[in-house]
Model the fold of this input.
Amino acid sequence: MKKGLLILVSMLINVSAFAVTEQECSKEQLLTYYPKPFVLETLKKFNVPKDQWDAIKQELSAKDEEVIRLVEEKASKMQPNPLEDPNQKQEAVKLFRETLYEVFSDVMYAHGVTDKKQIQDMLNDILQQKAKRFVECMKKKQ
Done:
């Protein structure tokens, strides 16, 4: 299921390719929702105070495993369940993105970043980096 949701996320974003290493294409790296290198790049790009970086990346890493559980929990309360109905792909993508935002924004709020637009832009930046990496890794495997 994680792989399917990752593919849905990559479909949401315009992607371009760049060179990657084997380690950057590891299954663990590709299936992580908030990869530490991308989080750090985004925090730097959006001028989040450097003294918050380690705590933010650690908290997001710890919450990474909660994403699927939260998505499944929310989806189970919906009729039809978008994770079980192939005709509900857009709803599944929407639910997944909302959950990623919820988890990410909770961590950012806890560290003093409260501008909702900035938080959304930061999450989009991480997702774009992930999508680029995913596409490049898939090309490398061909």
